[in-house]
Protein 1
Amino acid sequence: METHKTRKISVPSFKSEKDEATWWSGVEGRAFLKRQSSARSAAKPGGSKLVAKLARVGSVQIALRLPAPDLARARTIAKHKGIGCQTLLKMLVHEGCSAPKTNESPGRTCGYVAGPLIQSG
């Protein structure tokens, strides 16, 4: 059985931008980026357990229209918590949809009837 030797790739010095662009778009440049990317993903993820769990789950991109004041409030809360606004919104959707169901009323599809998800202050 043959063992695969991985040779270390480092970014060389370039004579021109054209040479640099050619290197980055070539096999060695792509291999370098792939190795850098896999090294970062192998590092222990930071943040909460919920954020890590949401990152593992496959996701679907959607467009969502929100009232401007709601989005502004979400951005303020996210900044206060030290997380991104989209991360906060994903966490809120996840929390709302996984909350225990209570007496469902017509028109409610998620079954969440409890108080606000975010406490102000």
Protein 2
Amino acid sequence: MPSERTSVTDAGAEGAALAANEAFYRALANADAEAMDAVWARRAPVTCLHPGWTLLSGREAVLESWAAILANPNQPRIVGGGASASLLGEGAALVLCREVVSGAPLYATNVFVREDGEWRLAHHQSGPVAGDR
């Protein structure tokens, strides 16, 4: 059983991962390309799977996709919420959350890695859900 100190430390790390996840959705909501760039990992491999797209691999390809999405005046609003975080060791965190795009429910998986003491996004995948189960 983990000690109380470990639990408090884990809770702090999970909270920081959730804050990084919120920064990602805030960048998306504000169509802020600079903030979007800031949330993604610089050294870790980066991948992204937008709904209906093929896998994007590499920081440049992923950020180009987000730049196009953020610059699109017809892009539907994307709202994230209901996030939960789990640590995957000391250097990675898994955040699962809901997304709503034009009223359609999606679920997202966001994997964060720790770089220079900060949680940075290494993988984002979002896809539709069938409904409440």
